[in-house]
Amino acid sequence: MHSSLIDRDLAIAYVNGVARADDLLEEAGRLRDEGHGRVVTYSRKVFVPITTLCRDTCTYCTFVKPPGAGGQYLTPDDVLAIVRAGDTYDCTEALLTLGDKPEAKWPQAQEFLDGHGCESTIDYVVQMAELIRSETRLFPHANPGIMTARDIAALRPTNVSMGLMLENISDRLTEPGMPHHNCPDKVPGVRVETIREAGRQRVPFTSGILVGIGENSAEIVDSLLALADLQRETGHIQEFIIQNFRAKADTRMRHSPEPEIPYFVRVVALARVILGAEANLQVPPNLTDDFAVYLDAGINDWGGVSPVTIDWVNPEAPWPNLEHLEAVTRAAGFELKPRLPVYPEYLSDTWIDPELLPAAVDRATDDGYAAIPEPTRTP
Ligand code: SF4
After folding, report:
1. Tens digits of per-residue pLDDT, 82-127?
2. Are 248 and 316 a contacting pair, CB within 8 Å?
3. Best of 50, 51, 56 to mutate for ligand 1, by most ligand atoms within 8 A of CB?
4. For the chain, what are the domain ranges?
């Protein structure tokens, strides 16, 4: 297998299983070993659902709720309760996940923001990130949806990293009947512009694709190629998440087929080959029973795993406990290491605000991973 694999037609053939999957997996594993050796990382985190209100209506989403049916903001006390619990368990990441611009749709959202002296939800996220930094040892990693240049600049002093999934590069998924119809924040060009702006501001960034929401194999390949192009341009995408769609009972896509594991494994392996040896490639371990298969497909990270909170985006899917995650990783021949929400290669003043960097370095080992006291505490 050669660099010709990047040829779009051959990549599509790999996704479709027309070309030999064995070759693809072998090359993906070789590239992972070349770039990362036999180390697989995870981030010890708490999930902080800042608000479950959103102006969008993605048809697979169970996170978002309307006002009166669970849609709300966490108060500062709620946020503090979560992150202080995380601090007790030596977590290093506060994942701030939320719906996109709820104030543009719901008067109740604007009322909450007015009551907290904020013009926008992003202002409130900035306020909560400052609170987390001042009260705990955790580092915020904000996933607030589409961000302007001003939003990113406001978050950068308190966030060691930020994220926005590309999900898919195809505008077709925004057409009537498709999952992102009437979702202004899911227009691919708008998401690309946020990712690009984060690069301009030198923010270590998380992005990735969601597989199984109605896209075809060409659209998967085009999405991976788009992410590779962005990374070549800016170098700031510190990790790429390849996430498999899981059907949620209370959503319009509840009867949609989930990607079959052999198919999804090929997508993961192809992502490694397209994104290269150095890329940090992640698959969440809580969305597949036998998640060890992704180690054979070239990943080097399990993403955020929490000993304290649930996965609010996939509440039906508990994270493996850390002992199990470590045992599975070790059995496959890898060493599991905790990392900060910023990867070791981005732990520098090129990428992190100079006021924030010393605290991050202080919680890192000499080689940039997270320093977690032993024995780690688990519930
Ligand atoms: S997936 Fe995100 S943008 Fe879409 S409805 Fe859910 S919270 Fe909103």
Report:
1. 999 999 999 999 999 999 999 999 999 999 999 999 999 999 999 9
2. yes
3. 56
4. 3-361
